[in-house]
């Protein structure tokens, strides 16, 4: 059986992934399989290794051991730009945008490489119609048309997070990683961003780290629970909510804190 046959229907697969910092084990033999087209949430207590897992998947830091595959292709050890060009993009906990560029210019920068346009001093960006058209499409998806020419640094926090999500999808990535997309938002802002995530993830595979349990259980098709660098359960939201081991390790405390 070929690798392609073994991983059919799987967008992202981690097998035996470990990450050590010196003698400290952060990720301890993590196994995870994310299906094509699903919305998959990773939850767990602080210090469980969620952001580290995202860093490993996206190539930001190297694995100590194990294998990571994207659509059946090995991406372990590849730099982030290579992984991005293979169809994966991610956002960060801390908003990562160009504050001194307009909303439109931020999106246009994100589109350039995906459309095959490398740096060339003789090219005028305004002449690249395909880039402009894609940036305008994403701008409309985000509902930020009226903020098109506003400097990104002048947006509200929720608008900046929406713009970062737009940057994440602008290049046409089929697998998107969102790290705490609703952190620091009011309930109204959260509801708006959740609806945006629901729309932009249609036809894509979404993997998200999120602490807000109402967001997790409202969006995710499946949930993986990460505790001390290991996945202790992966299942549908209802099964995760009722899992005694998950309740003991994390969920009960998280739901009480949220209430």
TrEMBL record:
Name under which the protein is recorded: ABC transporter ATP-binding protein
Cited SMART domains: AAA
Keyword Transport part of the UniProt annotation: yes
CDD domains assigned to the protein according to its UniProt record, in alphabetical order: ABC_Mj1267_LivG_branched
Residues annotated as domain ABC transporter: 12-253
GO cellular component, one term: plasma membrane
GO MF terms, alphabetically ordered: ATP binding; ATP hydrolysis activity
A Pfam match: BCA_ABC_TP_C
Domain of life, per lineage: Bacteria
InterPro entries: AAA+_ATPase, ABC_AA/LPS_Transport, ABC_transporter-like_ATP-bd, BCA_ABC_TP_C, P-loop_NTPase
Keywords: ATP-binding, Cell membrane, Membrane, Nucleotide-binding, Transport
SUPFAM superfamilies (alphabetical): P-loop containing nucleoside triphosphate hydrolases
UniProt keyword Transport, yes or no: yes
